[in-house]
C-alpha cells in the first residue's frame, strides 16, 4: 500500500511539475506579448495625432473584418443546419403521411379496438407557458417529438 501511495504521489508530483512548466511557458509568452504591445503603444504615442487616428481606424477595421468573418462562418453553419433540419422534416413528414395512409387502409374490424386503445392512452391536457430550454444534441429528438 505504501509503495502504491508513493507511486501515486510521484505521478501527481510529475503531473504538477509538467503543468507548472506549461504555465511558466504560457506566462513567458504572455509577458513577451505584453512587452510588444507596450512598445507598440509607446511608438503610437510618439506619432502625430493624425497618424494615431489612422492607426486606430485601421485597427478597428481589422477588428470589424474579423468579426464579420466569424459571423459569416456562423451564418454558413446555421444555414447548413437549417438545410439538414428541412431534409429531416421532409423525411418525417413522409413517414407521417405513410403512417396515416396505413391507418386509413386498416380493415374496419380492427378500428374499434384501436379506438379503445387510444381512449385509454389519452393524457390530461396541460397549459404550458414560456420558453423551451434544451441541449443542442437533443434537438433531433425534440423535432421528432414535435412532429409526432
From TrEMBL:
The keyword Coiled coil applies. Residues 2-102 form a coiled coil. Keywords: Coiled coil. This is MYO5B protein. It comes from Erythrocercus mccallii. The lineage of its organism: Eukaryota, Metazoa, Chordata, Craniata, Vertebrata.
Amino acid at each position: 500500500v505504501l509503495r502504491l501511495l508513493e507511486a501515486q504521489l510521484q505521478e501527481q508530483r510529475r503531473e504538477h511539475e509538467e503543468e507548472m512548466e506549461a504555465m511558466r511557458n504560457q506566462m513567458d509568452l504572455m509577458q513577451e506579448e505584453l512587452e510588444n504591445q507596450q512598445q507598440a503603444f509607446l511608438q503610437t504615442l510618439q506619432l502625430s495625432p493624425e497618424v494615431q487616428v489612422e492607426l486606430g481606424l485601421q485597427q478597428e477595421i481589422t477588428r470589424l473584418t474579423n468579426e464579420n468573418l466569424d459571423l459569416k462562418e456562423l451564418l454558413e453553419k446555421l444555414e447548413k443546419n437549417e438545410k439538414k433540419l428541412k431534409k429531416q422534416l421532409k423525411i418525417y413528414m413522409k413517414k407521417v403521411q405513410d403512417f396515416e395512409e396505413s391507418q386509413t387502409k386498416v380493415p374496419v374490424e380492427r378500428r374499434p379496438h384501436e379506438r379503445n386503445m387510444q381512449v385509454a392512452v389519452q393524457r390530461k391536457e396541460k397549459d404550458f407557458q414560456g420558453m423551451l430550454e434544451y441541449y443542442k444534441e437533443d434537438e433531433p429528438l425534440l423535432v421528432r417529438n414535435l412532429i409526432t
